[in-house]
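Hi C.,

You asked whether I'd gotten around to modeling the 303-residue construct. I have! Everything is below, sequence then structure, no commentary in between.
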Amino acid sequence: MKLGMSSYCLTPAMKEGRKTIYDVIDFAVENGCEHIEFVPFYLPFVDEEKKVLNYSLIDSVRDKCRSVNLEISTYSVNADIINEDPKVRESEMERVKLHIQAACRLGISRMRHDIASYRRPFSMNTVRHFEKEFPLMVENTRILADYAACFGIKTTLENHGFFCNGSDRILRILEAVDRPVGLTMDVGNFLCVDEYSEAAVKKCLPYADIIHLKDFYIRDKSKLPGQTEMFNCSGGSWFETLGGKMLRGSILGQGDLDIWAIVRLIKNSKFNGYVSLEFEGMEECERGTQISLAMAKAIFNEA
């Protein structure tokens, strides 16, 4: 097992100009990371307007990681490959294919793409909507898996957002795709659809290709008057689950998930892949990530 971090942790620092992606790589090394995951926020590997790869950036980031002996574990991309508008849907498929090409040039063999990470109204997250759109999810996931395989890349799906989330939904998709598509299992995201994390983690571990490690505060909505920033999970904002609870990102081990129990499940499963920290709390991102990484190491050593 290898513990590392997602570049997503330091997105605020990149957005504000405090850190470049090269600084993020150095930060990961300085904090003992064995790998880094890239999420292309403020990291334009693909020029989505011109629909071309930024070869110089891709090559320089790849070479930087090699020079500091930091493995690139995966590359994770938001997507909406079931959009109701066929033109938008096709454009999204082509966009994801460009990111697959970028992942190949980065020299990695794994990439996560979403199915529906865009912000669907809760009214469109029902079982009826899921069943209606299920065939298209499976078809387009197969297409991308087959395309990626031509580049030696394995695609993964994540329990992400509010639609393709929950252990039963994400595992049903994986089983139906009938391709070697893996699971990016986020231990905290199950809470977005009000699923008990420990039970969901135990169910999904046999499918897990890479694990996202994060923590959340959980509160009753009635006890947070005025704090109803729907869907806004960045910068430490509260956001609402499907069932009406409120979540906010926390430093690992300081929130309301039983991270110790989750880590014990991971260790007992003999999982031997990548564990990638995702910090999205309200604290300064560098400090929050640093503390979370130290906590993750301590819990994995002691749990």
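If it helps when you're writing up: Residues 233 and 239 are 6 Å apart (CA to CA).

Thanks,
B.
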